[in-house]
Amino acid sequence: MEIKSTFEQLIKLYHIEGVVTDYRKIDSGHMNDTYCVTVNDTDYIFQKVNEYAFKKPELIMENLHALTDYIEFNNKKSACKIVKFIDNKEGKNYTILNGFWRICRYECNTVTYDIIENAEILYSSGFAFGDFINTLSDMPLGSLNITIPDFHNTRKRLNYFFEKVKEDPLGRAKELGADIEVFEKYRDFCCKLNDLTDEGLLPLRLVHNDTKYNNILIDVTTQKPVCIIDLDTVMPGLAAHDFGDAIRFAGNKAAEDETELTKVGLNMVYYKEFTHGFMDSAKQFLTETEIETLAFGAPIITLELASRFLADHIDGDNYFRIHRPNHNLERARCQIRLAEDMFTKLDEMQEYLVNCSQ
Ligand code: GN1
Ligand code: MG
């Protein structure tokens, strides 16, 4: 069925008056299908949740209710707001109609960035992501559903990767010896956060778990964050995952899938701006051990993602949406290159973090 007629049917199920006058697909994000849909003169975001990645999407939507209720009832003042989906006529924040849909108002005058051109805008986003964890710090861990089990369990992610290498269903792994070796080399290192958590040295917190820079809507005029989006994986996790993933994305000199690997690397100016902002909101609650883990959280989460991209390539690209052949392989190689560059800068990263924590 034509997508426009799905939109037309959907709005009838909501308190949205008018007709669909325009729509366009928004191509950022590797999971969900996102559209900007204009109904008369008002823009909305219509999003179809990926049911391959999220086996029970209603759990996400329950979490979103719980998060907004928590923030509203407790009158939490945060640095920026979080995305809120509209209720349909039945009072539900999602609708099943040729898929699992949710709708929110489009935030006017905002943009998202895949690559950052100006380091100065990173301070406030770092602050916003740190503040997000702080805002939820009193919410009981058990009040949210687990939407993807073991989401940032790096040890399990690597075990799965090596299983896929062994299985090699499409014969793709046998040509990837040099890439696979990287994961053998860093496997123990990558389990450091698992080890510290198992030893009870790191607290679990409600964290965002997907702190890509394009998951913050930035005001076009002020260049300040307005709204944190993509709350699908807010679950108990580690501060180092949120910090590390944000650095992985915003700190990279190049795009996440850059194929010219000499362009890829950690920009320390970006790193410092983001870190300064993050620590200004997070140092009040982070433990000393957590602060010690933030810097190496960056290469760990970067290699974890590289292993996920590469496992998906080996498996036939079932999970991450690709835009060209070998796209997941290119993404994986870019992330490996980035992690290797981070390793050469770890001392400097750590030193800066310690300065910010004082
Ligand atoms: C996916 O949905 P999106 O594109 O924001 C993925 C993240 C990865 C990211 C890499 C549910 O995020 O874990 O870090 O791609 N989300 C899920 O760009 O797997
Ligand atoms: Mg996402």
How would you portray this structure in words?
Helix 3 packs parallel to helix 8 (268-282), helix 4 (154-167) packs parallel to helix 9 and helix 8 (268-282) crosses helix 10 (327-357). The chain has ten helices and eleven strands. By secondary structure, the protein is an alpha+beta fold. The chain has a five-stranded antiparallel beta sheet with strand order 1-2-3-6-5, with helices on one face. The protein has a four-stranded mixed beta sheet with strand order 4-10-9-7, with helices on one face. Strands 8-11 form a two-stranded antiparallel sheet. The structure holds 2-acetamido-2-deoxy-1-O-phosphono-alpha-D-glucopyranose and magnesium ion (MG). Magnesium ion binds next to loops.
Mean pLDDT value: 97
> What gap, in angstroms, lies between the N and C termini?
58 Å
Low-confidence stretches: none
Count of helical stretches: 10
Across the major sheet, the strand order is 1-2-3-6-5
> What structural category do the secondary elements indicate?
alpha+beta
In N-to-C order, the SSE pattern is HEEEHEEEEHHHHEEEEHHHH
Q: Taking Cα atoms only, what radius of gyration do you get, to the nearest Å?
A: 20 Å
Q: Categorize the overall geometry.
A: globular
Describe the biggest sheet?
Answer: 5 strands, antiparallel
The bound ligands are: 2-acetamido-2-deoxy-1-O-phosphono-alpha-D-glucopyranose, magnesium ion
Strand content: 5-15%
How many beta-strand elements? 11
Which bin fits the share of residues in helices? 40-55%
